Amino acid sequence: GLVDKMYKFGRPRLMERGVECCILEVIDQNQRAIKVYKRIGFKEIGKRYCYTGSVIAHQKVVLRETTLKEIIKLFDDGHYAWDNTFATLKMAQETYRKYLVYDPEDDALIGYFVVNQQTGYLAQLEARDEFWHHLFSGVSQICPTIKINNIHWNRTGLLRFLDDNGFENTINQFEMRWSV
Description:
Elements: H1 2-16, E1 21-27, H2 31-40, E2 43-54, E3 62-66, H3 68-74, H4 86-91, E4 97-102, E5 109-116, E6 121-127, H5 132-140, E7 145-152, H6 156-164, E8 168-179
Antiparallel strand pairs: 1-8, 2-7, 2-8, 3-4, 4-5, 5-6
């Protein structure tokens, strides 16, 4: 009952600060926690997927290190969990390196990725027209193995690419929302 008490205590304080909802991820196998969150009033709104694996270069690409400011001009972060949004990445600037990936033949922008080179954690990645082989060829120049957390359920092209290319689906999570 500790979680129930915590939310009962916190709800008025959240409301007076203008908080309208809480969103969390819970491991989809953790039925006990899911039951508690549902009892409090959380509702499942989707699923998130986590992967790890070795990166293999399939294409020749050109990498250019860039800034988060430049990425924000070019791309949207609407499908990232809170811990990988542009706002959160701004607070962790020194932790991540940012790269734009280009086609070497026509210098066309393929996509970008944001990575912690020490851990191999990919915080964000996008490939125009789902050129995932090209994008991951760029990633392979920086990190031989990677981890990606909380991939949005509607990113079917990326999920299919990861599954088809030997990446391990390590854990799945439900995204749950509670209206304050």
